[in-house]
Amino acid sequence: MSDAPASEAPLRAAEVASAQTRTVQVLVGSQALGGLGTTIGIAVASVLAERITGNASLAGLVQTVQVLGSAGAAYLLARVMGRHGRRPGVALGYLLGAVGAGLCVVGGAVGSFALLLTGALLLGANTAASLASRYAAADLAPARSKGRALSLVLWATTVGAVAGPNLVGPAGDLASAVGLPVLTGPFLVSLVATLAASLVVAALLRPDPLLLAREVSGEDLHGPPARLSRTERRELLRAHPGIGAAVLAMASAHAVMVAVMVMTPLHMDHGGADLEVIGLVISIHVLGMFFLSPLVGALVDRVGPRAVLGLGAGVLWASLTLSGTAPEGASLRIGTGLFLLGLGWSLCTVAAAALLTLTAPLAHRTGVQGTADLLMNLAAAAAGVGGGLVVGLLGYGALNAFAAVLVLGVAGAAVGAGPRSAAGERADAL
């Protein structure tokens, strides 16, 4: 903390508390819009790709490219935020996502797979902005409640994300009414929602939580963090083992979730399920991802990330067992499996994000977080490519077996996270 006079300390504490409340409120609103913009297209992306290309093996490529776009955007936004704060970085991410959604509409309208992939690449910036928002919510939160702060913003995604897939049908009707193919409708809605999220962040996220945290801690307000050499990075990881464990858990859990989630609509479509039912199952999955996240965050703050990561690994294995044995089409088993897949992802992601925020030094926090999101999305992209190939060659059940092996990364991270609680990692962390 800075060396402010004692008489100024209560005023600064009140300023930080007020800024934290405003930050969370703004991010809750933008996250709801961003969640709608991100997930409404997921329910139809693989189906639209197959309709354009006529090749089921390429169906998962759209989501894979979107994940790669998220990886690249995570690095770009981390650089922007490291220099200028959270507000311009998050707003830029949503703006790029809106452009991507527009290109997806055009690609679907003219039957261009190349345009669809380009749009998906930019649309990945939506996810990067959403992930950065959860970190922004924790910048000013006390160490004892960082898990709850970031999980509350994740929870806000429920509003838009659950509504999104259920708007697939009406969005298709809207597209038809304006002369566009039915499957471009969700991306049209994504364009509007994501642009609105960008405007909310740009206009209302003031003061910037990261810049205020740096100011309070005594750091240079606008100075970019020092670039670390390879030796310095190794020393950072050695001094803070929670960083490596958090990155491993994030990458493994996200790879599992993406690999199975993006191919489930195609598995159901092959069994004759209509778009409304597919959208409902994706909504159930997203409900598992976000709706219980405040409880997950409170659990992380109470028992620490190690226990929650172990629990998350168990839930993921249960979900893969249910989904992997489900027949094509619509079934209660698929819905239950996808809900548990989302819940397992939530347990792992909230625990890992809290651990990463608490253990990464403030001077390098955005760089570490951006690198973590980059690696997380690269792992998911690889899993998405592998998932499409596995389903094309061996089937949906084999995909779930493949994903079950990846869960071992979460289990290993739970061991490597160390015995202390999240709050105990850095009791004085801002």
Can you tell me about this structure?
- This protein has 430 residues and is mainly alpha-helical.
- It is 81% helix and 0% strand.
- It has 18 helices and no strands.
- α1 packs parallel to α5.
- It is globular.
- The N terminus and C terminus are likely disordered.
Please summarize what this structure is:
Helix content is 81%, strand content 0%.
Secondary-structure map:
Blueprint lengths: L8 H45 L7 H24 L1 H25 L2 H26 L7 H21 L1 H10 L7 H20 L4 H9 L12 H10 L1 H30 L4 H16 L2 H11 L1 H20 L7 H28 L5 H29 L2 H11 L1 H9 L5 H4 L5
Helix pairs in contact: 1-3, 1-4, 1-5, 1-7, 1-8, 1-10, 1-11, 2-3, 2-4, 2-15, 3-4, 3-7, 4-5, 5-11, 5-12, 5-14, 6-7, 9-10, 10-11, 10-13, 10-14, 10-15, 10-16, 10-17, 11-14, 12-13, 12-14, 13-14, 13-16, 13-17, 15-16
On the 0 to 100 scale, the average pLDDT is 83
Number of helices: 18
Radius of gyration: 21 Å
Low confidence ranges: 1-7, 419-429
- Say how many strands there are: 0
- Our estimate of the beta-strand percent is under 5%
The main pleated sheet reads as: none
**Elements, N to C (H/E):** HHHHHHHHHHHHHHHHHH
Shape: globular
Structural category is: mainly alpha
- N-to-C terminal Cα separation, in Å? 8 Å
Proportion of residues in helical segments = over 70%
Quick tags:
single chain, 430 residues, mainly alpha, globular, disordered N terminus, disordered C terminus
